[in-house]
Amino acid sequence: MIILKDFIHLTQEEIKLVLKWRNDESIAKFMKTQNISLEVHLNFLSSLKTNATKKYFLVYDDENIIGVIDFINITKLSCEFGLYGIKKGVGELLMQEVKNYAFNVLKVQTLNACVFKENTKALNLYLKHGFEVIKEDNNFYFVNLSFAYMGGGNNLNIFNQIYGVAV
Predict the structure, then answer these.
(1) Which of 67, 68, 160 is nearest to 112 (CA)?
(2) Which residues does 108 contact at the CB level (< 8 Å), separation at least 6?
(3) Cα–Cα separations (whole angstroms), residue 18 to 11, 121, 159, 162
């Protein structure tokens, strides 16, 4: 059974584990911010209590932590997501949870992400789940999945509003 534990309810042990994983080279190399101090981490966690545009979750599969999923820039129409697994082979499960939470709980129409070009595993996972690359720059691919792909209405203009991109 999958359980999403909101970062605002983490135990001290979980807080330390998330910081350790977040700063691990294999994860941090695909993050925009690297080498986070404990103080910065704690301030970030505290800020989540009053920020309705961000949601971060520790993902449990039964008793075992398998990774983190997050949603930022949350609006009524769209959000951007991120994820990282702490075990091999959990990407599919994390991606399913991202889509479920975004479309069924947040009820957004469009799910967006930016992917470091070197992160081919993430890009391939997103493409496998129906995401489309709609822009790229020197460092990133910008991808999105609209509710249309999931059976709802098409809304690529949402991505344009967020990233200022014409497609």
Answers:
(1) 160
(2) 74, 75, 76, 77, 78, 79, 102, 147
(3) 11, 21, 29, 28
Helix (H) or strand (E) holding 82: strand 78-85
Model confidence over 131-158: pLDDT tens digits? 999 999 999 999 999 976 555 444 444 4
Distance CA 91, CA 83 (A): 8
What is residue 9's three-state secondary structure? Answer: helix
Task: Give the separation between CA 140 and CA 45, rounded to whole angstroms.
Answer: 26
pLDDT tens-digit series, residues 86-95:
888 899 999 9
Q: How far is the C-alpha of 49 from the C-alpha of 43, rounded, in Å?
A: 11
pTM here is 0.84
Block residue for tokens 């999105």: 144
Of 141, 5, 138, nearest in space to 62 by CA: 5
Closest CA to 141 of 124, 117, 125, 164: 117
Which tokens is 127 given? 């493409």
